[in-house]
Amino acid sequence: MNEYRRSRRRSAAHPIAVRDAMTGEEVGRIGNLSESGLLLIGGAPLTEDALYQFRFTLEVGDVRRTLEVGAHQLWSDSASTPGQFWVGFRFIDIAPDAVAHVRAWIDAPGGQYV
Fold first, then answer.
1. Pfam families from the xrefs (predicted)?
2. Which CATH number belongs to the domain containing residue 47 in this structure?
C-alpha cells in the first residue's frame, strides 16, 4: 500500500481530549496527529465541511503545552464501535511554535505511525 500523505502521522497512545475552543465542550479525542491535521474520534457527528477552533494539550518529555488550532473538517465516517465517529481535519491556522511542538511530539521516541 502506498502512502500519499505529505506529513507523517503519529497515533495517540493515550487519550488526548480535544475541546471546541469557543464553547469549551469536549468534542472527542485525537486518534492520530500530524503537523498538518488530525483524526478525531468523537461521540457525535460534526458539521460537514465546517471550520472549527480546537484546543488540546500535548506532552513532549516534561513540556506540557496547550495548543489552539483552526481546522477544516474534510470527511467523517461511522466507526465500528456504535456511537463513535471518525472525523478528518486539516489545520488551516496553527502558530509556528505550535507546529514545532506538534513536530516534536511526532518525533518523540516510542511513537507508532500510521
1. PilZ (PF07238)
2. 2.40.10.220
Which residue, 41, 95, 26, 31, is CA-closest to 65?
95
Output the pTM of the full model: 0.90
The grid cell for 56 is 488540546
Is 40:89 a contact under the CB 8 Å cutoff?
A: yes
Decide if 112 is inside a domain.
no
Q: How many CB atoms lie within 10 A of CB 12?
A: 19
Cα-based distances in Å from 37 to 1, 30, 54, 62? 21, 10, 11, 24
Quick: pLDDT tens for 50-78: 999 999 999 999 999 999 999 999 999 99
- For residue 25, which amino acid is it? E
Q: Alpha-carbon distance 90 to 69, whole Å? A: 10
